[in-house]
UniProtKB/TrEMBL annotation:
It holds the Pfam family ExbD. InterPro entries: ExbD. It is a single-pass membrane protein. It is found in: Cell membrane. This is Biopolymer transport protein ExbD/TolR. Its main location: membrane. It comes from Methanobacterium congolense. GO terms for molecular function: transmembrane transporter activity. Keywords: Cell membrane, Membrane, Transmembrane, Transmembrane helix. The chain crosses the membrane at residues 21-44. One of its GO terms (cellular component) is plasma membrane.
Amino acid sequence: MTLDTQRYRNKMRQKQARVNLVPLIDVIFTILIFLMVTSSFQAVDTGSVSGKPQVSQTDGTSQYYLIPVTGLKNVTVNGVDMSKDIKNDAIAVHRDVIDYGEIIIKAKEGTIIITSPSNIPPDKAVSIPQS
């Protein structure tokens, strides 16, 4: 008995390779379920929306700290416009405002919005930077 290799080659050339996706999907779902079961999730505290770190005490001895923003045009403290204190695209902010208040920097708009603690008036919350 002779083997007809030519007919076998033609038959193999005409068949197209097929990939069965069902086992692949099964494996992917198995891995996904495994990762979900073995992972540990923790709740995120969204108490601070400003993104600044919680500081228990102030480091350093300075009363005011410099906040530079390129193209700074407008500074608002508790709704009061304090843009007159801008010097060289920067503003000096009181350390208690940094520790206990809220500072929102909108760099694209060139704006800083500050909410100071109730015991600090707007004229004390910010100052003209000293060179």
